[in-house]
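Researcher: Please predict.
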Amino acid sequence: MQKVIVVTGLSGAGKSTVSKALEDLGYVVVDNVPVDLLHNLLELYEAKNQEQLVAVVVDSRSLRHQGEVSKFVNDLMDLKHRMPLSVIFLEASTDTLLSRFNLTRHLHPLVHATGSRLALIEAIEREKELMSELRDVSDIVIDTTGMKERDLVYQVENFIGKDRGPEFYLISFSYQRGLPTNADMVYDARVFRNPYYVDELRTLTGLDESVADYVRGDGNYEHFLKLWVELAERSYHEHIKLGKPYLVIGVGCTGGQHRSVLVVRDLNDQLTKNGHKVITWHRELGSVN
């Protein structure tokens, strides 16, 4: 993951949400750092904590004038040459920021910092102008207009390179022994012809190629597999929006030995080919991959 992150941007755009997300990922988060101390702070962490992940939040409370912003940009460019550092800039539409401030009743920092009586909308527009130079040198700019917190966290995790772990857990099972209790969705492999009724295949499993050839020879197999892969991927992306990091799919057949095992094999191969991380479990065979 990125070792040093500077989180900045417009007030009300989501810096608190990003800070909490980074803390959950193991970062030491320092909020509202005076820009003059940024060099010293990061050099201290670099010298004393070689493995420590560090995130620093900087906003217009510390950057009240254009000259201070320009100096801070120069400092960031210098630091980037000396350590692995990335800048995340958060922004949102004026209407969105206005709505958020009206909802929380918080005072905009530019109004507070300057002591002026600027209207809120004027403070928002002034901050956009003030921070534009910093925005231009940021590694990623995230517009949080209309974005849910979970979506923002997901974007940040993707940017810093979090290892999200398996995205799919595929379980083959026998309907006779009951559905997996943790399955988010279930595919029914009983729609395919059953190798159990072929003497030479009965004692084999879906891990054997002769069984695989027989089941794949069903005229419906390729069509269903394609539909199930598409459904799995679409469902996974919707689950992510709800805050669930993985999808559990059960694939059942009568005995949990032939058809369901093969479908899990083929789903695993296709989803892995599409770039997903997958764990499979053949419940009735007692094997995990």
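Model: The chain has two domains: 4-160, 168-288.
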